[in-house]
Amino acid sequence: MFVVWGVVTITFALRALSPGDPVNLIAGQVPDQATRDQIEQDLGLDQPIYVQYFDYLGDLLTGSLGYSYNQRRAVSDIVAQHFAATVELAVAATVVALVIAIPLGVVSATRRNQPADYGATFGSLIGISTPNFWLGIMLILIVATQVGFIPTSGRGIAFHEAVYSIFRYGYVGHLFEWFTYIILPAITLGTYFTALITRLTRSGMVDELGKPYVTATEAKGLPKTLVRYKHVLRNTLIPIITVLGLQLGTLMGGAVITEEVFNWPGLGQTFITALRNGDWPVVQGIVLFIAVAFVVINIFVDALYARLNPQVSDE
């Protein structure tokens, strides 16, 4: 809760210190001073800053994120409309990262100082060093222009709608459409995560492979592949899950640039638009939502960590 309160306080302070008059954003250059005074009174801007702050906290406690006069809608409705797209992109990027990174990390650890290990290490270095906005633009220029069925912007169809289409009508075309729209943004957003998990998996596997239980299980005649993936990799997954939870929250907050590049209608693009328009209630609402999501994800990861490693819960 302290983290959420800190985010609320900092964003409110930035709003108070930001240049520009909120009344101008709502009323434009209306010369009627009485109208402007009425708007200022309705927004509570005629009150001292500390009164505005506690009024804002009171609204949050009642579940109100404020009202966007630019869009003429409640901020909670705007967040509800766009958050699913951001979560969808973050989860897709995570899946892409895990599918590539874990097998690559295992191969790199079991073939140390071999070409596969060098290739995985070099690829991880490139992935960590590559800015995602540049990678997104390159994917648009190189891949999408050469492969005609991959769109370069937009969302197309939501994942739940594609799944519903399969169960309701038996039609898989919408799922393919969803895949073509999300694949490039997911790769762009998940590249850094892929490199990070690859290096973490390799490091954990190298440590585990040197322990006595590995030699003992192999001496019993168990296949090396079974030992590596059932025993060694399972023990390696504990720190990976911790990083996974942290990075999932980071992906939700860090999808801003990727969403802007691919015109993905999520919270990131909405945040950029609100920032450009000076729509501070929307900016505050999105930042607060991401902060709460980050805290919830971390709590879930801690619980899962204790489940996988009972020694943590006993301490």
TrEMBL record:
KW Cytoplasm (keyword) present: no
Pfam family, one: BPD_transp_1_N
Superkingdom of origin: Archaea
Gene3D superfamilies documented for this protein: MetI-like
Keywords annotated in UniProt: Cell membrane, Membrane, Transmembrane, Transmembrane helix, Transport
PROSITE patterns: ABC_TM1
UniProt keyword Nucleotide-binding present: no
PANTHER family: DIPEPTIDE TRANSPORT SYSTEM PERMEASE PROTEIN DPPB-RELATED
Name of the protein described by the UniProt record: Binding-protein-dependent transport system inner membrane protein
Protein species of origin: Natronolimnohabitans innermongolicus JCM 12255
